[in-house]
Amino acid sequence: MYKMIVGNWKMNGTSADLEEFFDFANDWLNPMFDLMICPPATLIGRMTGTSVMIGAQDCHADVKGAHTGDISAEMLADAGATHVIVGHSERRTDHAETNAMVAAKTNAAWNAEMKVILCIGETEAQYRAGETLDVLRTQMAESIPDGAMKTNITIAYEPVWAIGTGLTPTLQEIADVHAFIRETLVARFGDAGAAMPLLYGGSVKASNARDIFVLPNVNGGLVGGASLRKADFTPICSALEQA
Ligand SMILES: O=C(CO)COP(=O)(O)O
Fold it and tell me: Which residues does UniProt mark as catalytic (predicted)?
């Protein structure tokens, strides 16, 4: 089964962290899975050139123009990023990003020949209300454009209440949700939907990584806090290698 692990550094990382990154990359010269870090945009150009793929954390939906402070997919690709995360819950919350905006960003990334890691996930209130599958169904319907293929998109399921909290759904819940995501993708995209990688994200750490990564329909993980330090991320990568 295809395997991938992505470290999302969020708004963390300066040149002081590069030495540790290159040391980490040196440990994974020929990984048996796709290994990626998504650093802040300021570091992308300085982290390319190893076996660790480099992704971005967001892109603007337009190609260029009067959008002070924003970065287009073309610029990120030019800096050396091959992938871009879109629809992360922190973007949806902090910047009021809608499903329609996530779809537009996805198309922009594809137009720049980048691949997308598209995040979906329910809030704690939605989880408690038993609305998880309804929320995910709507997010997928509205934020995944028709052009999705097995090679241009990865779906990351990140329950909002599991991000940075140390809480995770049960293994059964993760398996059930991933099965639902898979079914939904197959219903819409057929064979391509059967092959699109699915990642779990939200408080992945060394102690739970293997149990999560061996679940059916889980192709790997999207890791936040535990991707920042080599000592934390290495055992998670090893867990994926062995899963
Ligand atoms: O949001 C996440 C990755 O995108 C998950 O973050 P944590 O691993 O810190 O919970």
Answer: 88 (electrophile), 158 (proton acceptor)
